[in-house]
Amino acid sequence: MRNVGLLKAILALLTRHLSLNHYLTDGIVYRRSEALRYYHTTLKYIHKAMQYDDYNTSDELLATALIISAYEMLNSGQQDWERHLQGIFGIRRSQIIHGDSGGLRGATWWAWLSQDSWAAFRDKRKPFTFWLPQRVDFKQMDSWDLAARSQFLFARAVGYSAQRLGNDTADHFCAKMDEANVLHAQLDSWKDSLPIEFDSLPHTVNDEGANFKTILIHPPAFAVSVQLHYASRILLSLHRPLLRGVNVFLDQQRLLRDCIAQICGITRALTDAASSILSFQYLFIYCGNMCRQYPTQGGDSYAHTNVSSSSRLASKVIGRRIT
């Protein structure tokens, strides 16, 4: 680790994470003030280093900015987090970095999109990105590209859900329906193109008494991408204009129940901290939109999902405790 700014950014994020999760520290107490010290040291380093043109276009700046953004996410600094996400967006735009960029730059773009999509959902806004992928045939992609593309479709769904009808003119209604139909077709195409690696595997989890059957998909990155897919369908279904009629309403409810079962079933099988936290975000989407309609089933999803204890902090956002 030769870059001091990147090292301090990692220490800031790590210390802040440990200060929020005392059970990981074996009795050692990490305070928020320690993380804050590393954070300010990082900002001072970036401020000085940006006087040099080479640093402004370096991979180190991209990685450091992304890690600091993750720190702001944990630190509950919504305005600071938003500012850093916009800053990273500006850096990437100036250097023409996008989802098809290879190497570290492409990886940081996808990590940034994941953060920005979640922030956009919380703030009821569209994600900052306006990149349109050149490769659109899912059947020509490998499994890892398919998993990443699920994140892009989720960002599209978040952007769609942030729109307001504004006026009820026929043209506006039709335009919103057309956009929903295009996104729905893309989600269908993604699902139909999944190879065998995304199929559910046999498991030994006892599902007796559970409302949601365990769905084991390995590796966890593929499992999370499938959860993203169903979270996208939930957002699209709840925000697209619906024609009147009991049958249309019943079809929507059936779709939502199926999506919830998939998200919660996959969550039951995930045990690693990173995937569990992401799963909790999708459960947050479920709770925010569905708890009023399925209060009993919603409670069961928390009682029976195997979310690691590192996600317990996130449960405060929901207002329920994970057991």
UniProtKB/TrEMBL annotation:
Coiled coil spans: none
Top-level taxonomic group: Eukaryota
Keyword Chloroplast: no
GO cellular component: nucleus
UniProt keyword annotations, A-Z: Nucleus, Signal
N-terminal signal peptide: 1-19
Pfam families linked: Fungal_trans_2
GO biological process: positive regulation of transcription by RNA polymerase II
Protein's UniProt keywords contain Repeat: no
Classification via InterPro entries: Fun_TF
GO molecular function: DNA-binding transcription factor activity; transcription cis-regulatory region binding
Subcellular location: Nucleus
Protein name per UniProt: Transcription factor domain-containing protein
Species, as recorded: Verruconis gallopava
